Amino acid sequence: MERGAIPVDDVPGAVDLQSTLESGQTYLWWRPDGATYETDGAYGGDAWYRTVVGDDVVEARQTEDAIEWRATTDAADLVRDLLGLRDDLREIRRAATEDDLAQAAWDAYDGLRIVRDPFFGCLISFICSAQMRVERIFAMQESLRAEYGDPIDFDGETVYGFPRPETLAEATEDDLRDLKLGYRAPYVQRTAEMVASGELTEEDVRGRAYELAREKLTGFVGVGDKVADCVLLFSLGYLEAVPLDTWMQTAIEDHYPDCDRGNYADTSRAFRERLGPYAGYTQTYLFHYLRSGGE
DNA sequence: CTCCAGGGAGCCT
DNA sequence: AGGCTCCATGGA
């Protein structure tokens, strides 16, 4: 096992690991101590979080002056990528809309960073997110790992990573329904099949202009505009992407009514112009703030 | 009991 | 393109 620490002084802007990993933007990190999601600071904010990238287990926690990590490999650069620690939060916030709601959200969770989840896990977890509560989305990913993940030895402990595309592609719809995925089961199986066969992959999306990338992603089964935006924002680093879910639609009705253009594409465009070049950042702060009871 | 959750597919016009 | 309807599951 290798270890390291990233001093917070080396990170441009504030860092808040708990807000970053428990704001509903990623379902691929969990607490190895078994704590349930959203236990609200019961660990003093210094709990370890765990994820798996490829064949490597990676853990991170926040201490007073650093983000500490331990992993099956040298993960110093990887942790910076996964947790958005390279993003200059000061510059990003300066570019954000100055309206009261957005600023209140930024104030409440300063240090929340946009994650860069591995593509396939992000894609599958957000397909699972359709009409589902945050807590249960976590539970579904846990089931997928336990049932289909490859075992990895981590300092004597066996850790199961997110399933590989080929493995999920070979699962049957009924297998996945047994994991309580409901009507998302065939979506997950067929999308895994598309990735595994090469019919449509990360490489077909990455690097393309934002709206074209979103259109490409909707080629996956179970992926519409909203889930596509989640993958663009939380995996591929398109910081302008603004997933328009039920929370954002309500926020737009109540606080940005002139951005409501009656359809996803046009409302998205108007909302992005309002929130600025890093619209996805402010969107994620708004989502977490509103869902946690603000305003 | 009903309602709803980080929506999308299929089918209709 | 835009507007239905249905889709599993579990907690409030």
From TrEMBL:
<dbReference type="Pfam" id="PF07934">
    <property type="entry name" value="OGG_N"/>
</dbReference>
<dbReference type="GO" id="GO:0019104">
    <property type="term" value="F:DNA N-glycosylase activity"/>
</dbReference>
<keyword id="KW-0227">DNA damage</keyword>
<dbReference type="Pfam" id="PF00730">
    <property type="entry name" value="HhH-GPD"/>
</dbReference>
<keyword id="KW-0511">Multifunctional enzyme</keyword>
<keyword id="KW-0326">Glycosidase</keyword>
<dbReference type="InterPro" id="IPR011257">
    <property type="entry name" value="DNA_glycosylase"/>
</dbReference>
<protein>
    <recommendedName>
        <fullName>DNA-(apurinic or apyrimidinic site) lyase</fullName>
        <ecNumber>4.2.99.18</ecNumber>
    </recommendedName>
</protein>
<keyword id="KW-0378">Hydrolase</keyword>
<dbReference type="GO" id="GO:0006281">
    <property type="term" value="P:DNA repair"/>
</dbReference>
<dbReference type="GO" id="GO:0140078">
    <property type="term" value="F:class I DNA-(apurinic or apyrimidinic site) endonuclease activity"/>
</dbReference>
<dbReference type="InterPro" id="IPR052054">
    <property type="entry name" value="Oxidative_DNA_repair_enzyme"/>
</dbReference>
<dbReference type="InterPro" id="IPR012904">
    <property type="entry name" value="OGG_N"/>
</dbReference>
<comment type="similarity">
    <text>Belongs to the type-1 OGG1 family.</text>
</comment>
<dbReference type="InterPro" id="IPR023170">
    <property type="entry name" value="HhH_base_excis_C"/>
</dbReference>
<keyword id="KW-0456">Lyase</keyword>
<feature type="domain" description="HhH-GPD">
    <location>
        <begin position="128"/>
        <end position="291"/>
    </location>
</feature>
<dbReference type="InterPro" id="IPR003265">
    <property type="entry name" value="HhH-GPD_domain"/>
</dbReference>
<keyword id="KW-0234">DNA repair</keyword>
